[in-house]
């Protein structure tokens, strides 16, 4: 298993060129499908990658062919040196992207503009103040909405991520789509996924098929199917003559593992070759011992399972979450 030129491939020949780096396990929200009710135990700073380690590891991945880096968390922007890390990573030959909950965006807008950041994902699970505050267990609705408008005014490509939960926000499906009528945003409906501590039950999820059946019933022939980009996790659509678009990310009911190109690096320096995989490789300890991490990266990805980390069935998915085999969402970064 040689790194042929600049490529990280797995045993199925999938090329992995997209690295998702979790900058922190901390967050200023407490979304109930992500963060366990009791929160997660805060660990000493020494456990986590410092700024230099993040940059060094990122450079190693880039030398192995990574062309896109997404920063996630917890909430990446709560990290005290987030600006420096964003600026340093923007100097690498990669497409840089960020997923944020939007609360602190106004503090970063100049940094985003200065590095030429084009696209930004903001979590927005409801357009209703009281409900969003209930889902996030914090009172930031107004701040998040004004920051989303700030990003739109500054011509960023804004993607809005909503985890669809039955009986919670699935009733807002058409409101989310109507939000794209006059606003050039891309609303993405994410299927509820099982993670440690989020009491996952697929009965609470809304499948890709159900979402599209509802939308087709409501909008009929005005629903247009858009071309998906290579390796896209989303199935993209728009309503005719609307400014924006929408998509569904169906990891549970209609997975897209065939074209997976994603690698995850957790804030404590572990590589996950799949979001649902229970196995991880510690590259931070190796880095701190001055050992070669390239080999660890190539091996970890080579051993990747073909499908959902080996969780072929719903039962396996549920078991993995309920028996705390995987991490909490906040400790992976999605
Ligand atoms: S479930 Fe795992 S293999 Fe499938 S698309 Fe997600 S990260 Fe890739």
Can you give a write-up of this model?
The protein is an alpha/beta fold and 334 residues long. The protein has a single domain, classed as TIM Barrel (Alpha-Beta Barrel), CATH 3.20.20. It contains 10 helices and 12 strands. It has helices at residues 51-63, 82-90, 105-114, 129-136, 141-153, 173-182, 208-219, 284-288, 294-302, 314-322, and strands spanning 18-22, 68-72, 95-100, 119-123, 157-164, 185-191, 223-225, 234-239, 245-249, 262-265, 270-272, 281-282. Strands 7-8-9-6-5-4-3-2-1-10-11-12 form a 12-stranded mixed sheet. The longest helix is centred in the N-terminal third of the chain and has 13 residues, at 51-63. The two termini are 28 Å apart. The structure holds iron/sulfur cluster. Iron/sulfur cluster binds next to loops.
